[in-house]
Every structure is written in C-alpha cells, then in structure tokens.
Amino acid sequence: MYEKLGELQQGYNTVTDMDSKHPDMLQDIGVYRLSAGDRETLHDEGKETAVLLMEGSITLEWNGHVQDISRGSVFDEDPWCLHVPKGVQVIVTAKGESEVLVQKTDNATDFAPKLYTPEDCSSTVAGEGVWNGTAERVIRTIFDHGNAPYSNLVIGEVISYPGRWSSYPPHHHDQPEVYYYKFDRPQGFGCAMVGPDAHRVEHNSYITIPGSLDHPQATAPGYAMYFCWMIRHLDDNPWTERIMEEEHAWLLEENAKIWPDR
C-alpha cells in the first residue's frame, strides 16, 4: 500500500494506526510538524514508543531527564532517537520548526529508557564495489533485536544515492515493515516495489510492506532518497535477517559478473 501525505499539516500526521489504518503493520506511526513553542505530551500505558527527530531543534523530557537535541538534515546527520517503555511520559517541546516521527507498538516488557545519540547509531555503506556501484547506499540502524532484544520494534534509516538501488538484492521477511520517504529536493522521486506492484514514491510518502513480499527500491538520477524503515517483530519470531529471493541469490556470489563485463 502506498500513500503520499503531501505537505505535512501542523500537529500529528498519521501514517499507520493499529486500530484503524493499515492495522496489519501492527504499529502506530505518525509525524509531528511543530513550530517554535509547540509542546506535545506522549504517554501510552500499553505501548513502547520511539521518538525520532527528523529535522529541527527540540527539547525532550522523560523520567526527570531533559535533553536539547537538533538535526539539520536526515541526509547529512546521524539520528537522535528516544526509546521508552509503556507508561513513561515524554514531553516534546519545539525550539524551532521541527519534524518528529513517532513509532509505537504494544509491549508488556519493562525496560530502561534510552536516548540513542548519533554516536550510538550503527552506520554502514552497503553495495560498495559490487554491481558497478548501482546499489551503493548508507544503512543506519538505531535499534533492533541485537541491541534492544526487549523491544518489539526495529527502527533505522537508509540514504539511497541518486540513480541507485536499495533494499537490494530483493529480499523479504515474515515481519511487517513501513518505509517513510523524504528527498533532498521536494520534487525528487523514486520507485518502490512491493511484491509484483510498483509505486512512484515522493517526498513525505510511505509504503506498507506485508510480511513475505520482497521490496527493492530505486532512486531517480539527480535526487537522493531517504527512508525511515520500521519493523514490528512477531511473537516468538523477531526480525533478525533478510531472506534473499532465491532467483537473485547469485548476485551475492563473490566476483559475480554482470553485463557488460560478464
């Protein structure tokens, strides 16, 4: 499923909702657009919450902690993300024009809140030196089952270089996933494939990816594409790996040759 939010409205912009909008994603996801002085209180007695600053400058308050954070660009700067369990109140106060993404899901497990700093983020360049560089991109992982096994969520970011592919080679996994997109220029665009379907993705758009469908992405030349990737673990089946599509697995072979060097 593809949808374009367009220009974000002031306040909360819903992407998914566990009760009413794409409930098969098993997540509440939305983006706050805030102006200086705006104040939002996040408090859920049954759901864990991740608060990701996409751009701007905000103050976060939780459990007696106060932290000012800022981010100029999702393309050039690693993320700040606050992760709290059910029952913990988070207050977000905007110090200027800001965008904040919030991801939630049910989780009865109690754990210590953690503010992930840019230094905590695992960032790698994937696709270097293979397939003539056509799938080179930056993959950032904020938290997953490896560093937050108590969580039912995964959240990370990808920067897909202009004219390149990402989420490649094609792969799938059992768990549902959501991609939320931005482009370095508002007229930028790319292509998202989900199973047999293809969609033109644009600034402030998203796709929902049911488990078991592959989802390769492509970016138009001249435009850099960002997407926040968000996965919901299944009960007794957490996301830990990508399952490559069998017919494309040869691309992972050492020294795989492609045309015209084949």
From TrEMBL:
GO MF assignments: glucuronate isomerase activity
Key words, A-Z: Isomerase
Gene Ontology process terms (BP): inositol catabolic process
Leader sequence residues: none
Keyword Nucleus: no
InterPro entries reported in the protein's UniProt record: Deoxy-glucuronate_isom_IolB, KduI/IolB_isomerase, RmlC-like_jellyroll, RmlC_Cupin_sf
Protein name: 5-deoxyglucuronate isomerase
